[in-house]
Automatic annotation (TrEMBL):
Source taxonomy: Eukaryota, Metazoa, Ecdysozoa, Nematoda, Chromadorea
Domain of life: Eukaryota
Membrane-crossing residue ranges in chain numbering: 19-40, 47-71, 91-118, 139-162, 196-219, 240-261, 281-300
Record-level Gene Ontology MF annotations: G protein-coupled receptor activity
Protein's UniProt keywords contain Membrane: yes
Record localization: Membrane
Gene: Cni-H23L24.4
Protein name: G-protein coupled receptors family 1 profile domain-containing protein
Keywords, sorted A to Z: Membrane, Transmembrane, Transmembrane helix
One CC-aspect GO term: membrane
The G-protein coupled receptors family 1 profile domain, residue ranges: 31-297
Keyword flag Calcium: no
Length: 358
């Protein structure tokens, strides 16, 4: 399919969306499901509930990315009509699932922030976190509810309607299509959501929080005097901090493009094939982030052995526990014209003319 494309940005976009993206999503799903199996087998660890929730969000993000990004791209490069089955699936995936994709992405980012706060509290105030919370999933459910509420307005950016195929005389050849709503065209709405709230709540504040908390944790561990008997626990602490720092670094590398995109004049560059390719790369990096997290868990917890060894000392005496704390791992399509939507504008969607809506 990509062979028929002229060598250039659109050719590379075809390779990226039809080959590389499914590979990243598929392998990432397998890795995160493997992490879930391991985490469920070590549920006694105090931060495992957050790790389970984090891997669950990563799984759903990778799954919805396949539907929201791959299906419209497949429809685009296969040159199918919008009234085909593939065209209908492309409409439904972009209009119904893209807000959920954004919500799970937000939830995973906020969860890594929650885990960093928990670790910061355990390292600097060990006596305050001797006992595990009775309802460990309660704050995680609150995070998921906030993520859905924050991205729920994305559904209002679509106006749905039934569209009849003008080339078909049959009265039954209809598809359920969508176009940008009045809210999606409102400049004040985009200015508040895309240029203020999203950069602050999903990028700048989490990045600042993760950087400060993990720097304080690393400083505290580096300055601590450790006896010979506690050197192995000290090494576990350093591995856990290295894990978090690695995740913060990946967060910066994979999400900075999405932040910069929100401040670009989309109407000015929407007809540029190179701009379309850059948006495809940004979407791929979001999934690379979820793909690499299980690899980081595996490497920096000694193939997950730290999760088991640290639990053995979790209910030790306060004196011994001050030298050892809970280990954690966390994480805090296309033709020349694109839809003018805030975040869903990153996604391909068909229209009744066979091209993407402006």
């Amino acid at each position: 399919m990509c062979v028929s494309e002229e060598f250039g940005p659109r050719f590379f976009g075809c390779l990226l969306n039809l080959w590389l993206l499914p590979l990243v999503c598929g392998v990432g799903l397998i890795l995160n499901i493997g992490c879930l199996i391991v985490f469920f087998s070590t549920r006694g660890h105090p931060l495992v509930p957050a790790l389970i929730f984090l891997s669950f969000c990563d799984c759903l993000q990778l799954f919805f990315s396949f539907l929201v990004l791959f299906l419209p791209a497949l429809h685009d490069f296969s040159q199918s009509t919008p009234y085909s089955t593939l065209g209908q699936l492309a409409y439904l995936s972009t209009g119904l699932l893209s807000p959920l994709l954004l919500a799970f992405n937000c939830a995973s980012i906020w969860t890594i922030c929650f885990i960093s706060i928990q670790r910061h509290r355990a390292i600097l105030r060990p006596l305050s976190s001797i006992s595990s919370p009775s309802k460990p999933f309660k704050p995680l459910l609150f995070i998921s509810a906030m993520a859905l509420s924050f991205n729920g307005c994305k559904w209002a950016e679509f106006r749905w309607f039934w569209s009849h195929d003008p080339t078909n005389s049959s009265d039954y050849q209809y598809i359920l299509a969508h176009e940008p709503s009045d809210l999606a065209r409102n400049e004040n709405y985009h200015r508040v959501l895309d240029n203020l709230l999203y950069p602050l709540l999903v990028y700048l504040v989490p990045l600042l929080l993760l950087s400060v908390l993990n720097f304080r944790i690393l400083t505290n561990i580096s300055n601590r005097r450790v006896s010979f008997d506690h050197k192995s626990r000290f090494a576990q602490e350093r591995r856990s901090v290295t894990l978090l720092i690695s995740i913060v670094t990946m967060f910066f590398l994979c999400h900075t493009g999405g932040l910069a995109y929100r401040f670009v004049d989309q109407e000015k560059y929407n007809n540029s094939e190179l701009f379309v390719l850059l948006k495809d790369i940004i979407n791929l990096l979001f999934n690379v982030y979820s793909f690499t997290n299980p690899l980081l868990y595996f490497v920096f917890t000694r193939q997950f052995r730290d999760l088991r060894t640290m639990w053995n000392s979790h209910f030790a005496s306060p004196a011994s526990r001050s030298e050892s704390y809970a280990i954690t791992g966390a994480k805090p399509g296309s033709s020349k014209a694109q839809r003018h939507l805030s975040m869903p504008s990153l996604y391909r969607t068909p229209c009744v003319s066979g091209k993407l809506l402006p």
